[in-house]
Amino acid sequence: MKNGLLSVSCLVKSGFKVEFENDVCTISKQGKELVKIPCEDGLFVLDEEQLAAGRCSTGEAQAKCVNKAPHTGCAHLLHRRLAHICFKYVSKMPDLAEECNIKPCPNFLDCCACKHAKVKTCNYPRSDRVSKKPFELVHTDVCGPMPVKSLGGARFMQILVDDFSRASWVFFLKEKHKQLPS
């Protein structure tokens, strides 16, 4: 279990009891204490020896609750290295390159980065109103405060976009309330 994560919610669903008290995490099952994990630099680190010695490796729970280190010699590695390209294309790689030694992976892993990128957001409803000349409709937004001030001391930006021409302007503001009137 090198650099893996242990899911507390998964352990609890599997019948384990997980308690955090005085910088020590205790994992028990059916009233029997299995392992105590001390807090080190704000993290509870469970190493392989503790996992084995603590009889915490009760097959099913360990398989479900321990996120092992990322796959290294299989399609998942290439998926990550190629900017999270679709697995359909990753599987075609051995046909395209002679020295592409990709092992197909029987364990499909859900890629957190891909899941996060594919989260659907509600679209704004299409407006029936269409501008017919410049400055008839101007979109505006204020951004900030920025963590670093500009050379002029501004921490906010007001962005204006003309709907007709798509021309854009950016105004730097020292204070949010000093924005241009809408």
Structural notes for this entry:
By secondary structure, the chain is an alpha+beta fold. The chain contains seven helices and nine strands; from the N terminus they run E-H-E-E-E-E-H-H-E-H-H-H-H-E-E-E. It has helices at 8-13, 48-53, 60-65, 75-81, 87-90, 93-96, 112-117, and strands spanning 5-6, 16-21, 24-29, 32-40, 43-44, 66-67, 138-143, 156-162, 168-173. A four-stranded antiparallel β-sheet has the order 2-3-4-5. The chain has a three-stranded antiparallel β-sheet with strand order 7-8-9, with no helix packed on it. A two-stranded antiparallel sheet has the order 1-6. It is extended and about 75 Å long. The termini are far apart. Residues 57-62 have low confidence and may be disordered.
Distance N terminus to C terminus? 57 Å
Q: Tell me the major beta sheet.
A: 4 strands, antiparallel
What percentage of the residues does DSSP assign to strands (E)? 25-35%
Quick check: average pLDDT?
Answer: 76
What is the global morphology?
extended
Low-confidence stretches: 57-62
Coarse structural class: alpha+beta
Q: Share of helix among residues?
A: 10-25%
Query: What is the helix tally?
Result: 7
Give me a quick take on this structure.
The longest helix is centred in the middle third of the chain and has 7 residues, at 75-81.
